[in-house]
């Protein structure tokens, strides 16, 4: 069985805690409304820490806890939707600060599905030769793109980072990844205006479709909710089908921490009790690609993940993207 072994995990959370009541001076909302509609009570927000630095600190934590030499890392995958640079990749910046000088490094943008996609990509590299250890870093500074005048979205998001080291394992593994670009306009944040091009001639530009604009995060809540509840259940079922097992055999589902109502609906569609879903969004909110590994690390530290358990990580987000990874924990 070409499985994987997560040999170490780490995290970094900004010190700044923003509670629901803090939003009452910004927008028309209340703690009661936020909790009842999202399940979130508080979230962490960067006080200046950039995405790349939060990622480095999470990676250092993972390497220290796992007693792993950075020089033994062969590949760094950095998942984020909030990079500080067009180039270089944040993975390259992290490589330098970690001393992982033997690692190839690249960034991955699959939004809230990013960790699941990176985990699956790591496995594929591990079994195609030349790579024995992969460091996945998932870091997000969503406060940098949040519209704090939009009460429907600003209360959802938080900042943070998590990291893990992945190696070849012996246990069961399966995955299923999907994308639906037709829904791209449902959830997006555009780059700022490009630098002025002195040679551009608008008359020579080809006709093109009108595309969505706006540097702050925009979300069509109704469309995203419909997509997320349906696709979460579909991805879990597809991963189980690939593995030849029944959904009921899953011991723990670690979903993207988007909204408690999304998770409740999806778990009901799967026929699984909520007790089998691990949630920490009440304290951290939606941290995009960092949400699943942050929850996974917390569950591991609390002893809620044990060797032999069948664990399913499932993500869904902008793109639209989605995916699930099913693994026997070693």
TrEMBL record:
Q: Does the keyword Lipid biosynthesis apply?
A: yes
Query: Where does this polypeptide localize?
Result: Cytoplasm
Show the GO cellular component annotation of the record: cytoplasm
* Catalyzed chemical reaction(s): malonyl-[ACP] + acetyl-CoA + H(+) = 3-oxobutanoyl-[ACP] + CO2 + CoA
What are the residue boundaries of the Beta-ketoacyl-[acyl-carrier-protein] synthase III C-terminal domain, all occurrences included?
242-329
Q: In which pathway does it act?
A: Lipid metabolism; fatty acid biosynthesis
Top-rank taxon, per record: Bacteria
User: Could you say which EC number(s) this protein's record lists?
Assistant: 2.3.1.180
Q: According to its UniProt record, what is one Pfam family this protein matches?
A: ACP_syn_III_C
GO MF assignments: 3-oxoacyl-[acyl-carrier-protein] synthase activity; beta-ketoacyl-acyl-carrier-protein synthase III activity
Question: Which BP terms from GO are recorded?
Answer: fatty acid biosynthetic process; secondary metabolite biosynthetic process
Q: Which UniProt keywords apply?
A: Acyltransferase, Cytoplasm, Fatty acid biosynthesis, Fatty acid metabolism, Lipid biosynthesis, Lipid metabolism, Membrane, Multifunctional enzyme, Transferase, Transmembrane, Transmembrane helix
Q: Which parts pass through the membrane?
A: 308-327
SUPFAM superfamilies attached to this UniProt entry: Thiolase-like
**Ranges where the Beta-ketoacyl-[acyl-carrier-protein] synthase III N-terminal domain occurs:** 106-181
Transmembrane among keywords: yes
Q: What does this protein do?
A: Catalyzes the condensation reaction of fatty acid synthesis by the addition to an acyl acceptor of two carbons from malonyl-ACP. Catalyzes the first condensation reaction which initiates fatty acid synthesis and may therefore play a role in governing the total rate of fatty acid production. Possesses both acetoacetyl-ACP synthase and acetyl transacylase activities. Its substrate specificity determines the biosynthesis of branched-chain and/or straight-chain of fatty acids.
In which family does this protein belong, per the annotation? Belongs to the thiolase-like superfamily. FabH family.
Q: What is known of its domains?
A: The last Arg residue of the ACP-binding site is essential for the weak association between ACP/AcpP and FabH.
Please report the name of this protein according to its UniProt entry: Beta-ketoacyl-[acyl-carrier-protein] synthase III
Organism of origin: uncultured Anaerotruncus sp
* Gene encoding the protein: fabH
